[in-house]
């Protein structure tokens, strides 16, 4: 599964996600090749390729309806593709190998778009749902202990485990959803717009927590987001979905070299500029410097650095 990428000039970003500037020698827990998903006659994805590096937070962006959520559902085996292959943690989960997904479902955690918790269950009981599903032999006492531990890990006070979702603020609900996604000690974390609907401070705190958990737990994160601040602050690389494909993947500095109109409009439009100017979490010392993916990916370095000329030049 481990492959070495040769350094490539990214000045003209080809519509090919394999074109990356940095030599990366780690492995890829997610490898998607030639993915096509159709609904009726409409192809949402057409021959899409993407490789996710171990240890990175990969931001996934694209206009509304470009197929970000469908892509996530495909990777976790909820959407059977029309064509292509998806390898997750060394297992091919598509085609005749679809059964393999059963054996690895406990190795990832998911926070779906909207992040719905079961409203009739407490936070702790919500966290216990996947635990009971995969480990029915666990005693009630151990289940309670694990649920409280995951609740605290996600930045909530232990008392929150006994609360119902309706008693929580928006930011606390997202953390509770994160606690549930972390229930099984996953290697991979899938988050679909986790900070949507949060105020900027709540969103920044969630980002900070996510970066910290990623680095301390050694997670690989597939993070669908519209949030430009999130992309700048915590994502190692960003994959851009358009025209049914991943049209580019790289650090923001690398993406800015693309002349694709959507990329320019998104990152260099008025909102993109404000996000660029904002102080990234890393330089503010709020999250640890460096992480598995970016260290191995030298010279690309941590994505969260100011996008000045120097940063672009060395990326
Ligand atoms: N189960 C489904 N049946 C039919 N069309 C679907 C289904 N799921 C998604 N789609 C369509 O696929 C496209 C991509 O959806 P989605 O992945 O949710 O977009 P987004 O990038 O906003 O997350 C949309 O046009 C959506 O209407
Ligand atoms: Mg979506």
UniProtKB/TrEMBL annotation:
List each copy of the ABC transporter domain by range. 30-268
Q: Where is the composition biased (Low complexity)?
A: 292-305
Pfam entry (one): ABC_tran
Q: InterPro entries annotated for this entry?
A: AAA+_ATPase, ABC_transporter-like_ATP-bd, ABC_transporter-like_CS, P-loop_NTPase
Q: Which UniProt keywords apply?
A: ATP-binding, Nucleotide-binding, Transport
Please, which domain of life does this record's source organism belong to?
Answer: Bacteria
Q: Does the keyword Nucleotide-binding apply?
A: yes
Residue span of region Disordered: 285-315
What is the residue range of the signal peptide feature? none
Coiled-coil region: none
What name appears for this protein in its UniProt entry? ABC transporter ATP-binding protein
Q: One GO MF term, please?
A: ATP binding
